[in-house]
Automatic annotation (TrEMBL), chain A:
UniProt cross-references to InterPro entries, sorted A to Z: CPA3_antiporter_subunitC, NUOK/Mnh_C1-like
PANTHER family in UniProt: ANTIPORTER SUBUNIT MNHC2-RELATED
Keyword list, A-Z: Cell membrane, Membrane, Transmembrane, Transmembrane helix
Membrane topology type: Multi-pass membrane protein
Highest taxon above the source species: Bacteria
Residue intervals passing through the bilayer: 6-21, 28-47, 67-92
Record flagged with keyword Transmembrane: yes
Locations listed in the record: Cell membrane
The protein, known as: Na(+)/H(+) antiporter subunit C
Annotated family: Belongs to the CPA3 antiporters (TC 2.A.63) subunit C family.
Length: 112, 493
């Protein structure tokens, strides 16, 4: 199961990489978002999938699922959410002000 | 177990002040006063911490009373405390520069809260003893920097900012990847615990690969070889913001590389540290070529940021007491001096309205104080004794030679020549020559802008001339970095 998920992470990262290599802002945002999700999947896999009961404190259960990766991705998802929201606003602003969502055209006149 | 609650204050004070200031969006005077007070208090606390660490060794705080490695530890060693103090000094000066220069509109658009959040994240990164917490603090200052860098927002600025933001989003994803790998190998995220476990099982090929992953992440933040984003993005925001970025943000990356490669991944220096050395050498050469090649004031200064990153890394590569001591001296010096030259550079652009050196001439006639302060900063960067860059340069070079890295020490000295050439180029073109601008033709005044520049010059001079006074502190910091057991014992006993 872990191997399958890791392969899935690889596929998602490839898709994300393909998307961020494009010039359109929205595609780059989507690409970075997909990469972040792939990484979240990797973190949850790092603790081992389905290794025991829910992580509740009790004396009878011998093995617990590791709760730390879940806490980690909870934090990572929130941060990623905020950053993605900010970037989307910036993209919208650049589209509104300069009428383009093309990274090439955002370079401005000063660029050599 | 000794607990020191003072350790959390450099994070909490700017954080809460920033949160309160959001509520007083319209009261600019209150915002200015409170943010200045918060930073002054933080600097006093960092001095207190330095003295506590001097007398009592590394200080720790287990957040929420959860013993390490189950909770999040805050660890203050001398290295962190010195960087905290330098951060406070630099941020106070940049804040003072922002008062007259940043503009009413930005001030109402939450400039001060964002500035404080940036400082929060930087301080937290220096103090945390937990890898995931380090990621969180990185994000805190990165998100603040994302907003600060876009402030003002012309076309080129927005383009460069987006480049900066996307680069950092990707590097944050790599950071998380590294955390995931390290957690699945070792089962812990506490830095001290990681150090113990990796020392137990040995740093095999897999762990070294993960170390490279972290190196990529922090090299991207620090601008070690992967600096492609840096000259563009550091030259677009307003001066006060560009100065604090140049002084602090790359330094957090440098700090993280030092922490990871002295505390955790120190077992295979012939692989990891050699690679860092090669990266540092290439960085110095490419940064130097950039610095001498451009005629744009801001570009030259940003390439000087790149050179110094490579130079500071050379001390780490040697892994000798001299090399590390030199890196610490140079790192603190570089934080002050980069803020200083960016503020002077920004002031020149403010006066003349251009950053093209070929269009600027003879400023020293009407602005002698600005000129001479820039001259002191330039000499200090080159490492002329007794100015602050000198000791760092001597120790780093000595360390590299002692460790047998002659090529690295040599390139470091070559880099000093690049710095000398580029800084003197700025000085000669901007300050010497015929005075083309009369006082009436100037685009802006230096009223209020010289105070923070003077403060930073004094701080840099004090650091250089009073180097003897902080020698004990620096050597303690170097000893703690070279002896991971001190850190581990402080966290676990």
């Amino acid at each position: 199961m872990e191997t399958l998920i890791v392969i899935l992470v690889g596929i998602l990262i490839s898709i994300g990489t393909y998307l961020i290599l494009s010039r359109q802002l929205l595609r780059i945002v989507l690409g970075s978002s997909i990469i972040s999700h792939a990484v979240n999947l990797l973190i949850i896999t790092s603790g081992g999938l389905k290794t025991g009961s829910p992580p509740l404190l009790g004396e009878k259960v011998a093995s617990f699922t590791d709760a730390i990766p879940q806490a980690l991705i909870l934090t990572a998802i929130v941060i990623n959410f905020a950053v993605t929201a900010l970037v989307l606003v910036l993209c919208y602003r650049s589209y509104q002000n300069f009428g383009t969502d093309d990274m090439e055209q955002l370079r401005g006149n000063e660029h050599e | 177990m000794s607990m020191n609650n003072l350790l959390i204050t450099p994070v909490v004070i700017p954080l809460f002040t920033g949160m309160v200031l959001i509520l007083f969006q319209r009261n600019i005077r209150l915002q200015r006063v409170l943010s200045l007070v918060a930073l002054l208090v933080t600097s006093v606390i960092s001095v207190l911490l330095m003295n506590q660490i001097r007398s009592g060794g590394i200080q720790t705080l287990q957040l929420g009373g959860w013993e390490a490695p189950f909770g999040i530890s805050f660890v203050g060693d001398m290295f962190s405390a010195m960087l905290l103090l330098a951060t406070s000094v630099v941020s106070i000066c940049c804040l003072l520069y922002a008062f007259p220069s940043i503009g009413r509109k930005q001030e109402k658009l939450y400039f001060y809260p964002l500035f404080l959040f940036l400082v929060t994240g930087v301080n937290g990164s220096f103090l945390t003893g937990d890898l995931f917490n380090l990621y969180v603090f990185f994000e805190v200052f990165l998100v603040a920097s994302y907003v600060l860098i876009t402030m003002g927002g012309d076309k080129r600025q927005l383009g460069e900012s987006l480049k900066y933001i996307f680069t950092n989003i990707i590097s944050s994803a790599f950071f998380l990847m590294g955390i995931a790998y390290l957690y699945s190998i070792t089962g812990t995220l506490n830095l001290a615990h990681l150090s113990i476990r990796i020392a137990e099982v040995g740093q095999d090929g897999l762990i070294t690969t993960v170390a490279f992953l972290f190196l990529i992440v922090f090299a991207l933040k620090a601008g070690l070889l992967l600096y492609y984003w840096l000259p563009g993005s550091y030259s677009v925001p307003p001066t006060a913001i560009a100065a604090i970025f140049a002084a602090l943000l790359t330094k957090v990356g440098i700090y993280a590389i030092f922490r990871m490669f002295t505390l955790i991944f120190y077992h295979e220096p012939q692989i990891t540290h050699l690679l860092i050395g090669i990266l540092a050498a290439i960085t110095m050469v490419l940064g130097g070529l950039g610095a001498i090649g451009y005629w744009d004031l801001r570009k030259i200064l940003t390439f000087n940021v790149v050179i110094s990153v490579g130079f500071i890394m050379a001390g780490l590569v040697s892994l000798t007491p001299e090399g590390i001591t030199g890196s610490i001296y140079y790192l603190v010096h570089d934080m002050l001096i980069k803020a200083l030259v960016f503020l002077v550079g920004g002031t020149i652009i403010h006066i003349t309205g251009t950053s093209n050196l070929k269009e600027i001439s003879g400023l020293i006639r009407h602005h002698p104080r600005l000129g001479w302060m820039f001259f002191i900063a330039a000499l200090s960067m080159v490492g002329i004794p007794p100015l602050s860059g000198f000791l760092g340069k001597v120790f780093i070079t000595q360390g590299s030679f002692e460790a047998g890295y002659y090529w690295l020490g040599g390139i470091g000295l070559l880099a000093s020549l690049f710095i000398l050439y580029s800084m003197i180029k700025i000085f000669m073109n901007a300050f010497w020559g015929e005075t083309t601008l009369s006082v009436e033709e100037e685009k802006g005044t230096t009223k209020g802008l010289l105070l923070p520049i003077a403060l930073l010059t004094i701080a840099s001079l004090t650091l250089g001339i009073g180097a003897e006074g902080i020698a004990d502190y620096v050597s303690q910091a170097a000893e703690e970095l070279l002896n991971p057991n001190l850190y581990i014992h402080a966290v676990f006993d």
